[in-house]
Amino acid sequence: AGRYHSWVVDEKNFPNESRVIIDLIKDIFKFDRQTHTMGAEDRLTYLQEFGLPILKKIKVMVDEHLASRLILPKSEFGQAIGYFHGQYERLLTPFTHPGVPISNNLSTPIF
């Protein structure tokens, strides 16, 4: 969610696309909040079942946007999807390794 801000900033230019992705990111954080009392292995299993499919859905959407070439790479939205695409393997880490937080940003719990 390092580029969450970019999704929000460019919501005026890509309102539907941005809103869908923002809502999906919020859902991932919602599922993560539900795991705070779980042990690391239970949390991992829960996130794999509920959060990982959402992340994969975002990946499909991002790949489709990139393939369409309708979004300028230098736009806020273009930078956000480019960042997501480039960081996707790292974004998978909390869904593949027990105990890894979804975010290292202290402000993300506001979602």
Task: Provide structural commentary.
- The structure is a single chain.
- By secondary structure, the protein is an all-alpha fold.
- 63% of the residues lie in helices and 0% in strands.
- The chain is built from four helices and no strands.
- It has helices spanning 4-9, 15-33, 40-68, 76-91.
- Helix 2 packs antiparallel against helix 3 and helix 3 (40-68) packs antiparallel against helix 4 (76-91).
- The longest helix has 29 residues, at 40-68.
Coarse structural class: mainly alpha
Please estimate the helix content. 55-70%
Oligomer kind: single chain
Gross geometry:
elongated
Count of DSSP helices?
A: 4
Mean pLDDT: 82
How are helices and strands ordered from N to C?
A: HHHH
For the termini, the CA-CA separation is: 11 Å
Contiguous runs where pLDDT drops below 50 for at least 5 residues: 1-9
- In terms of DSSP E residues, the strand content is under 5%
- How many E-type strands? 0
Largest sheet: none
Rg, alpha carbons: 14 Å
SSE map:
Layout: H1 4-9, H2 15-33, H3 40-68, H4 76-91
Quick summary of this structure?
This protein is mainly α and 111 residues long.
List keywords for this structure.
single chain; elongated; 111 residues; disordered N terminus
